[in-house]
Design goal:
Length: 394
Amino acid sequence: MAQQPIVNYSLPPWIQFGAGAIKNLGKHVRSFGGKKPLIVTDEGVTNAGILSKAVEPLKHAQIDCAVFDAIQPNPTDLSVLEGLAFHQAEGCDIVIAIGGGSVMDIAKAIRILTTHEPPLENYYLDVGGMDRVTSNLPALICAPTTAGTGSEVSQASIITDTSGHTTEGHRKRIIKTPYNVASLALLDPELTVGMPPGLTAATGMDALTHGVEAYVATRYHPITEGVALQALKIIGKSIRQAYHHGNDIEARGEMLIGSAMAAFSFQRGLGAVHSLAHQLSTEANIPHGIANAILLPEVMIFNLSHAAKGYADIAAALGVDTSAMSTADAADAAIAEIRSLNEEFSMPKGLGIAGLKWERIPKIAKDAMLDHCYKFNPRPCTETDMRDLFEAAF
Ligand SMILES: [Fe+2]
């Protein structure tokens, strides 16, 4: 019998889930031995009045905190260094992220550099960073204010690298290690009720894409195979309701737990959608979830020859009645269901409308091949395939 390779399976972090969970923040900081938290957030969260929901329980527990809110969408390694300097100047000893994926990714990277020698570049996955990050890290609490990225339970941080190691300019790079997981994911749907429908749809489609790509990814990981499908059932049931009725706390809660599950499940791997989408945020400033939503049906068509059974399961998970369908028809129905969600959410009809310039496609197709995600795509991809996929989704 051939020897099995040694694999790593990590379980999700401690999750506290429920409306009002943020009120326990002071208690949690104390339980981790924190005396002065660094809160990483952004101006949108502050202006929406969400930050005060986190600061209030800290005040109540008489815990002084420092707030770093200079985070932009698609944040760069420069934001990490700025946050680190602030952390050191303020004498913080625990990190709290209150925000969406960008905020949590930056907070996770700041946390690494508080105990690991710079430069940040040493810790990217593509240069062997996984072996350089140790368990010597301060506690990190992540409270997401969107339901999509799942960074609060994932091992990944996506950072825009400005150091120029690309065919031309910046690109997104990944830090990924089992240690790069929050100590506590605080899932409070009350932090997400203020999200406008457009953001609910974009982040929700990111979560859905995580579930779809993870379920058909090639890595052997039977634990997350089941979780991916269950995440899609929950997201399929609640995404429309959360979009149309943002104050529905139950739907918001389901989207939060569904997106956390989908992100946990991509320990199994993601796929070509993410390798393509990562180029579009730096190249054309297209929000990650919107890029995924536009690309997902095209990549599914490309993958049909290798993933029809998986897509048929996904159609059923999303609520399509596939009982009288062949596998091929059910797989097509999964693609149709995703197109219908895009239509209902008024997603841009193509990458061109979303802001991509046609003449940039060869360059970003080349960069997509530097991204790690497509390596787990069910159908192997070449640079020509990447170019064809960008063109099909244009
Ligand atoms: Fe994503």
